[in-house]
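Hi everyone,

Forwarding the result from last night's run.
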Amino acid sequence: MKVYHGSYTEIVEIDLFKCEKNKDFGQGFYVTKNKKHAEEWAERIGNRNHTAGVITEFEFGKYLYLEKDFNILRFPDYTEEWLDFVVLNRSNKADESAHEYDFIEGPIADDKISRRIYDYLDGIVSKTDFLNELKYHEPTHQICFCTIKSLQLISKPNRKPISAVETIVEYIVMQLVEDKKITEEDAVNIFYNSNTFVQLTNETTELYQKDWTEIYKLLLNELKL
């Protein structure tokens, strides 16, 4: 999956220690699947630093990991849990992180929402009223990579085979879901535990250069054994 980071300069190497603290999901490297939002942020931070904003594109290996291997938190929408978590991170005064998640995915507290968060903390607006307001807010998206471990899942698109492998895995997982009428998680587990996946992720085999349908046939043949 393509994700984008907006900044005043191109990101050559990710350094978590240079990332700002007290953001929505704490200190970490933030990206979004919404390129328009990344462009808007790049323009703003570029103007602030007297440079042209720059968008750095990455590949997020959405299907290149098992959920059990990472400590993950996801917020599908603006919820009470999301609000409490954002407040927790923004008000964190300690040097260490307020949580132990590897990466977190959910909506953004943009400028308008940030102002209302302060109103909520000052008692000007109730939590109930604030959450009702959020129901009408434009959908947003961000992923925060909080640990060095999580950074293995993100790379520049020109690095191979991660980009090619990610695309192939995504197609195969979705085909397994359709053909076998199983959940996405079950499909991922089936593929990840197969010899076909081992061969695919072995760069020396160059299997990732083949069409995904050929690799899917290999998997199906293996599963028949």
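The two ends are 32 Å apart (CA to CA).

Cheers,
N.
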